[in-house]
Amino acid sequence: MKKKSLQLEPIVFNTFNAIFMIVIAVVTLYPFLNTLAVSLNAGNDTIRGGIYLWPRVWTEQNYRAVFAGGTIFNAFLISVARTVIATVLSLFLTSMLAYTISRKEYVLRKPITIIVVLTMYFSAGLIPYYFLIRDLHLLNNFLVYIIPGLVSAFNMIVIRTYIQTLPEGLIESAKIDGAGDFRTFISIILPLCQPVLATVALFIAVGQWNSWFDTFLFASSKQSLSTLQFELMKLLSSSMNTNSSASMANGADLNAVQNMVTPVSIRAAITIVASLPILIVYPFLQKYFVHGLQLGSVKE
């Protein structure tokens, strides 16, 4: 009797586990699939509701409206450039600071740690920050996307904590072989920190890609520096201010009405356009998360 119960336990557990994971997958994927369906559905039909996983009236008009301005491609390139450059530089400088503060023999590590951490809790405010950017001659300058966020206190703490879990013997052996601190950092620390660096890189990249408020504050008067998120935000604002009912009342033909975009449909198309690059990059970084768990479980 006990043997039968022991044989049934794995079957019952695996069944409930599979059902639970399927439910989690459906709950996770449904909002994205629903947004995709709305973005491919005619705007006036979307107002009726009832769009779930499949468009009721297919149209590409929403995406045409997104790309109709002609500025979206340059804004896309600016967003890609700021994301790549800022991620690489911020990752390198933040990890270098994290390695320096993680060294117990560094006498100033505690004061510097306190100073860096304080920046997470205290800020001078938006107006002094704007004056600082102005005095640094970063207004309407591409570097305004890069320099202010080069070092993040939170990311520094995450990387420092990971470095402290690495075997101390590796660093000591490198120094015995004659390697300096910079050579040790480049040859030993960075390769071993790939999992946490990939995680932090994703944080930085998503933040840079989704950022639009800095463009609004510091570069809105220079169209060539406009980012994708800022252009999409302007498009969404203009679509919400459009009185679609007036165009229908003014004798618009049936084809024009069916191809009409609405704030709901244009918002769905904007969400897909803005999130697609991150969705493409994420699977390539996911393997480092699992690898990081495996490395973190090995102690000296």
From TrEMBL:
Residue span(s) of domain ABC transmembrane type-1: 76-285
InterPro entries, A to Z: MetI-like, MetI-like_sf
Membrane-protein topology: Multi-pass membrane protein
Residue intervals passing through the bilayer: 12-33, 72-99, 111-131, 143-163, 184-206, 264-285
Classification via Pfam families: BPD_transp_1
Keywords carried by this UniProt record: Cell membrane, Membrane, Transmembrane, Transmembrane helix, Transport
Domain of life: Bacteria
Family: Belongs to the binding-protein-dependent transport system permease family.
Listed name of the protein: Aldouronate transport system permease protein
